[in-house]
Amino acid sequence: MTKTPLQFRHNGRDVALFVDGGVNLLVALRELIGDMTPKFGCGQGGCGACSVLIDGELHLSCLTLAETVNGRSVETLDGLKEGPNLHPLQRAFMEQFAAQCGYCTPGMLMAAKALLDRNPSPTRAEVVEAISGNICRCTGYEPIINAILAAASGGRARA
Amino acid sequence: MLELRKDIFADERDDNLKEIGKGTQRQDMLGHVTGTSTYFDDHKLQGMLHLKVLRSPHAHARLRRIDTMEAERSPGVRRIIRGADVPRNLNTLLSLINFGKDDEPSLAVDKVRYKGEPIVAIVADSPREAFEAMAKVRVDYEPLPAVFDVEEAIKPGAPVVNEVYPKNTFIYHDVYDHQKLRFGDVERGFAEADHVLEQRYQMSPIEHAPTETNGSIAAPDTNGRYVVYTSTQALFFSLDTCAKILDVPSNTFHFIGGTVGGGFGGKVDTLTEPLAILGAMLTGRPVRYQLGREEEMQFGSPRGAERIYIKDGVMRDGRIVARKIRAYFDSGAYTRLSSYAVVKCVAHLPGPYTIPNVHGDVYCVFTNRTPATAMRGFGVTAMDFALECQMDKLAHLVGIDPMEFRILNAYRDGDMKAHRREAKNTALIECVQVAAEKAKWPLREEMKRMSSRKDGGGSRAAIPATPLEAVAQRAAVSQQRTTYDRAQPATIQQPPPLTPTPPPPRPPAPSPSHGATRFSSVFGTRRR
Questions:
Q1: pLDDT of residue B360 exceeding 90
Q2: Are strands B49-55 and B118-124 parallel, antiparallel or unpaired?
Q3: Shortest CB distance from A41 goes to which of B32, B37, B212?
Q4: Chain B environment of A39 (Cβ under 8 Å)
Q5: Does residue B8 sit within a domain?
Q6: Which CATH superfamily is domain A88-158 in?
Q7: Of the given ranges (B31-40, B144-153, B362-371, B507-516), which has the lowest mean pLDDT?
Q8: What's the ipTM?
């Protein structure tokens, strides 16, 4: 099968690879680059476990053709830490018990980051709206919402 | 958020708890928030192949012929696995504890019994090539009549779902087609009761829908062993099940798991490991078998649906004097864990209440639906839903506050339970009291003073005379019999009129501040 060359920024680092036609960004990230932080949950855009940021905007990597990110910047949970330090959102998720099985957490954190990057002090309703595309089957969402609000109010000042 | 009520049962424990009541960081949390927790699918192995399964589009069909000739020549295909390749192609999960007969093949051979049943597994270089080959497998199906309703399934002449159990019920101890509970004489209780209420409850199957689907990766290790990364919730249970199906000693396998992307009971069935390992055995390469979301829903078991009939006799003063339950658990086409759910259910009857006459018959029934399995309290949860709906209706019938009605009937320390064990460490009364307090639901002072540790035992500890089969007895003419049962499924929008006497006057409307009005409005619509 003909492979298509593809080059993009992955968490601030340039990567180049060849992909089969029709390969989605989730598979490219996990299987070709080896970044296992975006997760496969449904492959249909229904659960948000594969959420990543493309040029700062939230996208579902399972529904994004890998070829379409050529020349763009892709951020995943793998790039969220600031050096050895946790991002305020990561700290808040830990402190607020915002993960149980942890499988939705990478997508939740990316959705939360997309929100706080454009709206540093969201209301509760805005937080709920921002994570409405991400399914969590364990927590019942309350701790996640609280963690994002905590990161928005206190986390940034502390960071 | 967490509140520890140390005032309740304060004398029952030392109050020097070090951990309980305090927040403690989970050991896996750092991995979760950094995305470094390793789930089964996060292993990338050199030369890994991908396994996909052809599934039945029919709920019930005979397999006349399976032709894989063309699929075998499809690009990227390494191996096609059929039922005959599975060393022991018949298993039941609880056979490891000698419970039940082997009834479920890894790959169907002669018949498919539910939509989504695995027929042929294809191991290929990529998932795409496996799917392309799958489209080239030709299966000649002879569709058979199917049965989807538990009560239809146990009628004489119903299609036989699973030949291992030709009457479409699980057979306990090689003899019994259901689990029975007999305690006292329900028929005498009904005859004495002021009101008798009979109801039918039906629940749907419930999908666990874990965000991570079931899956596993099996890889040849050194010394003839296989390492298996798996999503299972039950690591050693899955390991032993694989050893049985693949007919090898269990030390052939090194299972690695524990980090599970949500399970809730849906990852105890060893759904993927046997074929992944067999694929690795037959190709000598690592093999990954991950369910897609549709497969997770169609092949991965749900919480089984239950149909429950409850008939209760209650006195005007609020005492429940008899409770008779008949329930059918929809096990789907195979047993998986429903047989055990029934046992749990019967042990739980009649709920957390002390009732002198209890009668239970619970069936594990086979239908042409996706096999059911464990899910959070299975066997008890749906029955409790039915029982608590029934408790609200009974409270309404006798004009007693639903919270107080539960306190009145709650079991207490020293009471005899229907399965003939003394109730110990009961706490329903305290739970109701705290729930009422939190909901600002007014309880009378005497109800607030009740305790699980007072007034139990004594005559309530006795095992009543229990006839082998209770005989229906004539009830007083004043008795009110109420049934909300639907006569025909077609009359869903039109509930039948109440018979034979009109319901008692509604209790005075409680003050609207505590949610009680919502309760009555529910009954309002029901009783119209």
A1: yes
A2: antiparallel
A3: B212
A4: 39, 41, 211-212, 261
A5: no
A6: [2Fe-2S]-binding domain (1.10.150.120)
A7: B507-516
A8: 0.95
Q: Looking at the structure, do residues B372 and B460 belong to the same domain, yes or no?
A: yes
Chain A environment of B35 (Cβ under 8 Å): 36-37, 76-78, 105-106
How many C-beta atoms surround the C-beta of residue B117 within 10 A? Answer: 28
Give the residue extent of every domain in chain A: 3-79, 88-158
Nearest to A101 among B36, B262, B293 (CB): B262
A34 touches chain B (CB under 8 A): yes
Last residue of a domain, one of B265, B298, B331: B298
Q: At what angle do helices B428-438 and B402-409 cross, to 10 degrees?
A: 160
pLDDT > 80? residue A76: yes
- Reading the block at residue B292, the tokens are 């897609």
**Tokens for B455?**
């007034």
- Could you give the count of Cα atoms lying within 13 Å of B395 in the half-sphere of its Cβ? 20
Q: What is the CATH number of the domain that holds B326?
A: 3.30.365.10
Number of domains in chain B: 2
| Proportion of chain B above pLDDT 90, given as a percent | 83
Q: Do B429 and B402 belong to one domain?
A: yes
Task: Identify whether residues B186 and B328 lie together within a single domain.
Answer: yes
Residues within 8 A of A (CB atoms), B 281-300 only: 290, 292-293
User: Do strands B287-290 and B49-55 pair parallel, antiparallel, or not at all (unpaired)?
Assistant: parallel
Residue B509 predicted with pLDDT over 90: no
Instruction: Compare B519 and A155 and report the one with higher pLDDT.
Output: A155
The chain B residue lying nearest A139, using CA atoms, is: B262
Q: Please indicate whether the domains covering A3-79 and A88-158 agree at the CATH topology level.
A: no
B212: chain A residues, CB-CB within 8 Å? 39-41, 49, 101, 103
- Across the interface, do A86 and B210 touch by the CB < 8 Å criterion? no
Chain B residue numbers touching A101 (CB-CB < 8 A): 210-212, 260-263
Residue B499 pLDDT greater than 50, yes or no: no
CATH number of A3-79: 3.10.20.30
pLDDT in tens, A23-61: 999 999 999 999 999 999 999 999 999 999 999 999 999
Does a structural domain hold residue B254?
yes
* B494 pLDDT more than 50: no
- Please count the residue pairs, one from chain A and one from chain B, whose beta carbons lie less than 8 angstroms apart: 92
Same domain, yes or no, for B328 and B352?
yes
Out of A41, A44, A93, closest to residue B33 by CB: A93
Phi and psi at B71, nearest 5°, equal: -60, -35
Q: Output the pLDDT for position B235.
A: 96
Give, rounded to a whole angstrom, the gap between the first and last alpha carbons of chain B. 41
Contact with chain A for residue B39, Cβ under 8 A? yes
Q: Is the pLDDT of residue B474 over 90?
A: no
Which residues, 6+ apart, have CB-to-CB distance to B354 below 8 Å?
Answer: B409, B410, B411, B412, B415, B416, B417, B423, B456, B460
Residue of chain B nearest A91, judged by CA positions: B33
Last residue of a domain, one of B247, B281, B298: B298
Tokens linked to B32: 């979760």
Interchain proximity B264–A137, CB inside 8 Å: yes
Residues B358 and B330 in one domain: yes
Facing B44 at nearest CB: one of A20, A31, A101: A31
Do the Cβ atoms of A138 and B213 come closer than 8 Å?
A: no
Q: Do B414 and B361 belong together in one domain?
A: yes
In a domain, B4, yes or no: no
